[in-house]
Design a protein that fits this description.
Order of helices and strands: HEEEEEEHHHEHE
Oligomer: single chain
Number of strands: 8
Number of helices: 5
Strand content: 35-45%
Largest sheet: 5 strands, mixed
Shape: elongated
Length: about 220
Amino acid sequence: MKQFKYILPVLLLGLLSASCTGRHTDATTQTQDTLPLMVMQIRQCSRLYTTQCQVRKIITSDDQLQWQGSFMSHDFKVNVPGGQRKIAIPIDATVKAYIDFSDFSERNVRRQGRKIEILLPDPKIELTATRVDHEGVKEYVGLTRSKFSDADRSKLEQQGREAILGDLDRLDLTTEAQANAARVLVPMLEEMGFKDEDITITFRKDFNNEELKRLVVG
């Protein structure tokens, strides 16, 4: 009987040791298996729309009809009375930014110990809708001028769209896209065991205005 008194604690100690070792091994395996699972879940986000903003741009044109000529070797320009015309066209646009995770892979993930950084794919920008506020159009036409033609208006409207795209850097779309992507991805990573303070969501670089223009789709 004395043998069992000493053998039982030894057996229990051995079982406890084996149990701790087993949990450590499972945790390591779980850590190793987390990355493919993480990539798969993030890819399921597919196209994540992160930012939408409404933009209003007023495009103006002002031109004056002039007489031009030369007298005694001197060039001259004279404004034609009643030869001025002006127009202001308000354009409302919807701009959306999204992140396409369809090609997201392990290359987009950096891990160092318990810290993890997700490198977001480059954002895409869509000018999804533009509308001319016809009621808000203001036009002045002098007595000797004709009204702006449909072709003139169409050209100005196209200039308005280009002007909106030219102001993309002022809209701060990438900062908003990054912040909103973090709101989606951070809870997902926390469920996998990462702490909020150990998670970084970022783009591969800061984009200037010319680069943002190249990110526009459609």
